[in-house]
Amino acid sequence: MQTKRVRCKICGSLKEGVSLRHYNLRVCLDCFPHFFKKRVQETVEKFKMFGPKDSLIVALSGGKDSMSVTKALKDLGYSIKAFHINADLGEVSKKSIEIVQNFCEIEKIPLKIVHLKEEIEISLEEISKILKKPVCAVCGMLRRYILNKQADGKTIVTGHTLNDEVSFILKNMIFWHDELLARQSPVLQEKEGLSRKVKPLCLITEEETELFCKLSNITYVSETCPYKSGVYEVFKKLVYEINKEFPGSIIGFYKGFLKRMNKFYCQSSEELLLQRCKNCGYLTTLELCSVCRLKEKLLKYKNG
Amino acid sequence: MQTKRVRCKICGSLKEGVSLRHYNLRVCLDCFPHFFKKRVQETVEKFKMFGPKDSLIVALSGGKDSMSVTKALKDLGYSIKAFHINADLGEVSKKSIEIVQNFCEIEKIPLKIVHLKEEIEISLEEISKILKKPVCAVCGMLRRYILNKQADGKTIVTGHTLNDEVSFILKNMIFWHDELLARQSPVLQEKEGLSRKVKPLCLITEEETELFCKLSNITYVSETCPYKSGVYEVFKKLVYEINKEFPGSIIGFYKGFLKRMNKFYCQSSEELLLQRCKNCGYLTTLELCSVCRLKEKLLKYKNG
């Protein structure tokens, strides 16, 4: 975010700061981290995400968004544990572990690391070839599965930002995935076998998490995963462009969407048919969940 | 549109043609103009736009879209009259008149030309300064007003393409203009004082109108108006990018939108309060319509 000399709305002094167009607010760099955390707290309260005594699991990838939400919740006094899933995809994965470990040590946050290979032995690249699906899609599916399993009923906090949420919505509008639109909420309620998921950064942009990390001296993984791909990335770029052209437009769009969400809701057959996986208990529309089906396929493949 | 050697789905021969990703169809350049006109005819029927005996007024700007729709309807045997509104904005306007006159002479289409200054004497640039509104916005308002007045109850045909429609929808979704979304239809029904408006190109892209003009040897105004500006243009660019990244996505989005339109409909106060302008009879939410209010303002300004 571009900095310039501003009259800070919080402390009143004239110094280096930023202009936050979507709040119509100018804040100096000294006040920004406080403002950021206050904004997180307000979001948590607004959407009734959790209370001060709840224990939380934060999904910590090592990127700027998950680092920001972890730091903010820690400073706000919440009881958090960090959970890092490592995909062992070369240099970026190695760096992520280092960064996450250092950060949690400094911040005194309990950290659990799970490697994807603990769940499935074969590498993501190989699975991707066998299933003929992008690495990124397989990785996401496994991450959600492991996270849910490890959360053990605790609330899961993710670092999804306003940019992420709007990108999902726009993508699911362009392709009219009504059932996904109906589920696009800052809070995903607990369901039989699925933990509650909350997104305290849903009203905060990525430019803000970047600045927050910088001002809080947080080192984060800035390299993108070599396998990052797909439709979603295109929409993230479009959303970035829209917000650049019309500053503040995406927060208005998001708030307007939340008000209109019920319009998109149609009880899909998927919703009606959700049941527990016969093998592991994860929610699924079939007898076996996607991960157990994957494991079966891989076993068959292995045995020729 | 990029041409390449294709096996034409219509005539079966292997020759120079295009791949129309959103119909999943390959057509040679010889068959394309017939295909294009068939598509226009199907759209007219699908949305019950007009019958073979209706008399139509085509709004002919001179650009590729309005030229295409005029030529297609003429060749399909409809009874059309062309109507050109000239804004006298420099070279582009001069060129437009020439092009439109030549075209109508060759095609033997009755043409009526009206200059904006016949409605309002002061130049658009001056009005824009007085009202502190972009020239483009004032011009659009006056054009709609004149077109409606001249149509005298006949159905008005415009050259709005799929790209135009999707750009409007996306813009009105990002800013949640529900009342505009509710009106975004291929057919705008006649209302007390407002003519019926139809858009036979609403399922056709701009790449296709461009190719149709080229193959039909139609000269069109390719220069953009020097005053073209605003939010809408940004969305047109975005829509172009989306369709480039995901070929065929915008037609799916548009069709999905039309199915869901009623979800966006909320009877706005504007709808409820529409009445006839006390001065000219045009529909308005106030006592005087926007154009009569503009004229009053200009008169006051002139008299100091």
TrEMBL record, chains A, B:
GO terms for molecular function: ATP binding; metal ion binding; transferase activity; tRNA binding. PANTHER family: ATPASES OF THE PP SUPERFAMILY-RELATED, TRNA-5-METHYLURIDINE(54) 2-SULFURTRANSFERASE. Gene3D superfamilies: HUPs. Zn(2+) 2 binds at residues 277, 280, 289, 292. This is tRNA(Ile)-lysidine/2-thiocytidine synthase N-terminal domain-containing protein. Keywords: ATP-binding, Metal-binding, Nucleotide-binding, Transferase, Zinc. ATP binds at residues 59-61, 65, 85, 159, 164. GO terms for cellular component: cytosolic tRNA wobble base thiouridylase complex. GO terms for biological process: tRNA wobble position uridine thiolation. InterPro entries: Rossmann-like_a/b/a_fold (IPR014729), TilS/TtcA_N (IPR011063), tRNA_thiolation_TtcA_Ctu1 (IPR035107). Zn(2+) 1 binds at residues 8, 11, 28, 31. It comes from Thermodesulfovibrio aggregans. Residues 56-222 form the tRNA(Ile)-lysidine/2-thiocytidine synthase N-terminal domain. It comes from the Bacteria.
